[in-house]
Amino acid sequence: MGLEFIPGADPAVAEALTGELAHQRGSLYLVASGNYLSPAVLEAQGAVVANERAEGYPGARYFAGCDHVDEIEELAIERARELFGADHVNVQPHSGTQSNMGVYVAVLDPGDTILSLELSHGGHLSHGHPANFAGQYYDIVQYGIDLETGRIDYDELAATAREHDPAMIVTGFSAYPREIDWERVQSVADEVGAYHMADIAHITGLVAADEHPSPVGVVDFVTGSTHKSLRAGRGGFIMCDADYASDIDAGVFPGSQGDPLMHNVAGKAVGFREALEHEFEEYAAQVVANADALAATLTEHGLELLSGGTDTHLLLIDLRESHPDMTGKDAESILETVGVVLNANPVPGDTRPPTVTSGIRIGTPAVTTRGLDESDMETLGELVVRALDNPDDDETIAAIGDRVDDLCDAHPLYEQYD
Length: 418
Ligand SMILES: *Cc1c(COP(=O)(O)O)cnc(C)c1O
What we know:
- The protein has 2 domains: about 45-275, 3-Layer(aba) Sandwich (Aspartate Aminotransferase, domain 2), CATH 3.40.640.10; about 280-410, Aspartate Aminotransferase, domain 1.
- The relative contact order is 0.15.
- Helix content is about 45%, strand content about 15%.
- With about 425 residues, it is an alpha/beta fold.
- Helix 5 (about 95-105) crosses helix 10 (about 245-250), helix 7 runs parallel beside helix 8 (about 180-190) and helix 16 packs antiparallel against helix 17 (about 395-410).
- The protein is globular.
- Strands 4-10-9-8-7-5-6 form a 7-stranded mixed β-sheet, with helices on both faces. Strands 11-12-15-14 form a 4-stranded antiparallel β-sheet. A two-stranded parallel ribbon has the order 1-13.
- The chain has helices spanning about 5-10, 10-25, 40-45, 65-85, 95-105, 135, 155-165, 180-190, 205-210, 245-250, 260-275, 280-300, 320, 330-335, 365-370, 375-390, 395-410, and strands spanning about 30, 55, 60, 90, 115, 140-145, 170, 195-200, 220-225, 235-240, 305, 315-320, 340, 345, 360-365.
- The structure holds pyridoxal-5'-phosphate.
- Pyridoxal-5'-phosphate binds near residues 33, 97, 126, 199 and 236.
- The site of pyridoxal-5'-phosphate has 14 residues, from helix 5.
């Protein structure tokens, strides 16, 4: 990406960075949590504010010399408040995971009970998997997806909440294609006296553009990643009512982080501003329209989707019926061969191990940023199905690879960097 100094300073890293740009240009990125950040956001993330120590918050730092840093953080906060209609925003979490950690540290004690969705049903590690700090420091009970409908089993969620009396209920998921009913879960949280944290990591951009109902003002805490569908720079953020502001700020710093990454806060400020433009609403609507078009094509060609389709940017393909001998990992690998990048993902009730799985997850945020539309989704969907149907036919696989190249050439990426 317009490398000026690295080639002289560090040829090995320069070569890998140049290779990465070529890789991004020459493949279609369907990882549901992925996107392409704008050159302005990328520039902000490489800016000299990276040098500044800034523990604390605007106007109350532990270091001198923070005037410009304060200005940047205040701009990020103001823009996020406007974008989401939130009372209070903390823009310092280094990632979505750190956002969740900040909330837990702010309002829970170790050993408290968290009720969350199982990882294999679409939840996230930071919602309480045993391999993650959340699973190690808190007592985790879980709800699941109704295997018949492929939708959140809200009745099971309510029954489990009544039985276990959790301190916190977590909603918001990594592999769930349908709208989430925040109010319904909030009424359960009210009934059992639990906090409700909505982790909108995946759908931040859709919520910002009103393409998905917003949990802001409905639930206690909203956390998110900024680099997914919002494409507003690497990192995380937390939103809450004014009543919780000082608790949340203390949960992030000093509770769970040290110095903020001010270059990333600058990236968020620039990205939030981009998301306030009218074009971003059009973008988010196109993300959903593209996911819907892709779902229709894949379904027409006999693939099975969790819940039969999507309301969002995301589809989860369950290969067990259509391709019983193909694992999610096999599918990921054959698609990578043709230049389509996505990830193997467990499907609810999966009996294969999480590194193998029986599903693949697809998302449209990145290819939509690249300019692909519904008709491209039809083409892409057909190519995906052909690759999955003919993994051992080298000639067909090569021909599909050529078609993917054509799609990439028709939608150039980062032309500014030539
Ligand atoms: C991606 C994701 C996160 C973590 O975000 P990072 O920024 O990768 O740490 C948290 N929660 C959910 C639901 C996610 O999908």
